[in-house]
UniProtKB/TrEMBL annotation:
<protein>
    <submittedName>
        <fullName>FAT4 protein</fullName>
    </submittedName>
</protein>
<dbReference type="GO" id="GO:0005509">
    <property type="term" value="F:calcium ion binding"/>
</dbReference>
<dbReference type="Pfam" id="PF00028">
    <property type="entry name" value="Cadherin"/>
</dbReference>
<dbReference type="GO" id="GO:0016020">
    <property type="term" value="C:membrane"/>
</dbReference>
<feature type="domain" description="Cadherin">
    <location>
        <begin position="1"/>
        <end position="77"/>
    </location>
</feature>
<dbReference type="InterPro" id="IPR002126">
    <property type="entry name" value="Cadherin-like_dom"/>
</dbReference>
<dbReference type="GO" id="GO:0007156">
    <property type="term" value="P:homophilic cell adhesion via plasma membrane adhesion molecules"/>
</dbReference>
<dbReference type="InterPro" id="IPR015919">
    <property type="entry name" value="Cadherin-like_sf"/>
</dbReference>
<feature type="transmembrane region" description="Helical">
    <location>
        <begin position="185"/>
        <end position="208"/>
    </location>
</feature>
<keyword id="KW-0472">Membrane</keyword>
<keyword id="KW-0812">Transmembrane</keyword>
<keyword id="KW-1133">Transmembrane helix</keyword>
<keyword id="KW-0106">Calcium</keyword>
Amino acid sequence: DPDSGDNGLLLYSLVGGQTNEFDINEHTGQIFTVSVAGQAGTFNLEVQAADQGTRRLTAWTTVTVIVDSSSSSNIVMLVLNQKINVVERNSAEVQRVLEDKLAWNVYVVNIYSKELERKARSSTDETEVWIIAFDEAHQEVPAEDVKRKLREQKADIEQELEKVFSASVSAAVGEAPAAAASPELVAAIVLGVLLAGTCIAFLAYVLLDLKRKRKYGKQDLVKKVEIMEGIENPWAVDKNGSLKSLQKPEHMNN
């Protein structure tokens, strides 16, 4: 918008499409993914730009986003010795420097720090910037090629980033982030563990039950043998060692 003042101040918003999966920076118009884990395909977003004049003027366009599930294999991690809040604030400039030095289109996929799980997010001076590069044909640049060029341009990249952060910068290539397990795989692992635990508990119960039955079965067998021996022999030895008839006394027959 060539106007000046409020008439030239544009704010961007998503007015249609899969707005739950994406978000937009209202000042720059940059579109970010919010939740596309496990999804792949084409998403159409309706984007609106509006000035802030008295008579607010608006314009719309359709942005087509293609989510390729194979992209994660070419993500490269660049580790900067800067606080995460500082890197987030200057992410656009970091992207610009990388595009200029690598001569590819560079997209910042994620900005991560181990401090994300803590309250004091600015207490560490190490932030991971996950990037992916595309060539002029809009094809993904293999991760190894990106790493090689980052190492070749390391000095120039650090020099330019020092201007961005107004501080000494160290930029090192880190290990590629491991692909997160899909929800289906996690569910399968959990169910497998539960099933294994159930089977072990069931087998333990069966073994204990068999052991108990064997124990009491032997006791019953001994009793049966003693009874049978007593029936076959009408005379049995009492506790004093004398013979005692097993036949009923005559007064009991009456």
